[in-house]
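Here is one chain, start to finish.
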Amino acid sequence: MSVEDYFCSVSGVVPTEQQIVDDEGDDLGDLPLGWLKVTVSRRVLNPKWVLIQQVKAAAVEQLIQQVEEEHREDVKDAVIVQVEAQYAAYEDKVGKYLEDEQVSFITDPELSKPVTEAIHPLFELLELDLEDFGIELEDDKSEENKASDDKSDKD
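Its structure:
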């Protein structure tokens, strides 16, 4: 990715010159310094693969119906193997799953109180700790200061 491709999904800002880094060869590439990369991935069944399963089931049923009733159980496994073999290459080509991944970027929350306040509920909902990313909320700092002030008053 190029630095010009980065913009904050929350505030719309772009990286400053001080935030630009060279690609370090790690998983973050040239992600600007302090920025957050949010990746959402999803796997779903491929509708074409599901259709192939339906076609195979119909083909097995149709072929078995062509056999005399008293021999159907005897040939069922052979018919299934035959139908599986007919569709195996196409089934592999199509793949069982579709995967979707979307990536979003958020500017360094330490530099923007509105950004920090905007992402805080999302982090709470996802049970992520902002502090694990070195981000503290102003309320947390003021509570710490208040607690230390209260302690000083008692001394």
